[in-house]
Amino acid sequence: MEDHNQLLAELNNTFSNLESAIQRFNEKTFNQKTEPNTWSAGMVMQHLILAGTGLDQVLLGSTKTTSAPADEKVAIIKNIFLNFDEKYNSPPFIEPADESYVKEEQLAKLKNIAHTIAVLLPNLDLSLTCLDFEFPGMGYLTRLELLSFLIYHTQRHTHQLNELANNLNP
Fold first, then answer.
1. CB–CB of 159/44 below 8 Å?
2. CB atoms < 10 A from the CB of 105, how many?
């Protein structure tokens, strides 16, 4: 996924699929949980918003030349987030509050995140390591690895939203 155009296409496709998954919920089911200790669709979206907000600033922030291959951790990130059999706990700083969310407001925020990244992406040197955020358990990531995280993390939660929609609308 190193080519800018390929990465941009994957980003756009990922967020298009996310939007399709979100549209499967109405205002009632959007905040409905299948079990007490699970997330509603609104909470999943809030989690994605928290994870994506500020990513543009990290990408544009302090960087350094990378000694390792720029895509060194991409396969690891992909394997973590696209392994749907594994369940993970969210880091507290991107844990969504258990409250009601407005679907269209959440969707607008996610579209803004995707648009902001899509505008920046063509002009980024993807090989640089970002120094303004240390990824939990992985350390500092290259721009390519951070964008891969955004894509694979969003794909993981799109899968989760589709599963939730299937359970709420059998």
1. no
2. 12
